[in-house]
Every structure is written in structure tokens, then in C-alpha cells.
Design a protein that fits this description.
seven-stranded antiparallel β-sheet, 1 helix, mainly beta, globular
């Protein structure tokens, strides 16, 4: 996979350390930063580590009210098409003409996993979300 707008999506649902919230429930916007990410290709025996550009922090904003994820790697927001909120996690899903993505945020900890798949392969990212700072 080439590191194009799909990276934005992968890390786009990335993660930021620590939050004082007792539980993540989708009631407030989140800031997320990827702690680690992997680029996976169908003809490779294992996934390679993915490192985003140093000048673009992998902090993404999840706005549950607007059903969008904003990414520093993509001009247009990623539209959230489905949300499932159960006792364990919040699951977000979306798609574009070129790719599909899915993200899971653990309600108790804010730990986050996102996967993005396109015709060439997939990205998988892991991290932690925190409440977005207002302003």
C-alpha cells in the first residue's frame, strides 16, 4: 500500500495517551493518536511497521455528533456510516470509493484499534483516545 490518504484513515482513528474519564461512551468528541501502526500487503509474510511523517502528528479527532473523523493526512473528513455502542466498546465503520475502514474504542480504557483496507492491502493501527480539548 502506498502512504496516501488511507494512512490518514488508519492513523486517523489514532490515539492520545491518558484520560481522566471513567468511561468512553461516545458522548464527547475524542482526540486520538496512533502509538503503533502496521502496513500489511497480501504478498508479504508479515506486516511492516508504519511511521508517519514527523511533521504531521498522528492526532485525529472523532466527532460523534457530526459522525466524522478528521485527519491531518486528509483534507476531507472521513464519514462515519455506522456506530455500535455496547458495554465493552464503541465500533465505528465507514467507506469511501477506494477503501473501507473500521475502528474499535474500548469503553473502559480508550484503547483504540483501527483497520483500513483497500485494493492493495491494509493498515492496522493501535493507540489510545482521550477527550478532545475544547477551543
Amino acid at each position: 500500500m502506498n502512504s496516501s490518504p488511507w494512512v490518514a484513515c488508519v492513523l486517523g482513528l489514532g490515539l492520545v495517551a491518558g484520560d481522566a474519564r471513567a468511561e468512553f461512551d461516545g458522548s464527547v468528541p475524542l482526540a486520538c493518536m496512533a502509538a503503533q501502526a502496521h502496513d500489511c500487503l497480501p504478498d508479504a509474510e508479515q506486516c511492516r511497521p508504519f511511521n508517519p511523517a514527523a511533521d504531521k502528528p498522528a492526532v485525529f479527532e472523532i466527532d460523534f455528533g457530526a459522525n466524522v473523523v478528521r485527519s491531518p493526512f486528509r483534507a476531507a473528513p472521513l464519514q462515519v456510516l455506522q456506530v455500535a455502542n455496547n458495554g465493552e466498546a464503541i465500533v465505528l465503520q465507514g467507506m469511501d470509493l477506494q477503501f473501507a475502514w473500521s475502528a474499535l474504542i474500548k469503553r473502559a480504557t480508550g484503547a483504540f484499534t483501527i483497520s483500513v483496507a483497500d485494493r492493495e492491502g491494509a493498515y492496522v493501527a493501535f493507540g489510545k483516545c482521550s477527550e478532545a480539548k475544547k477551543g
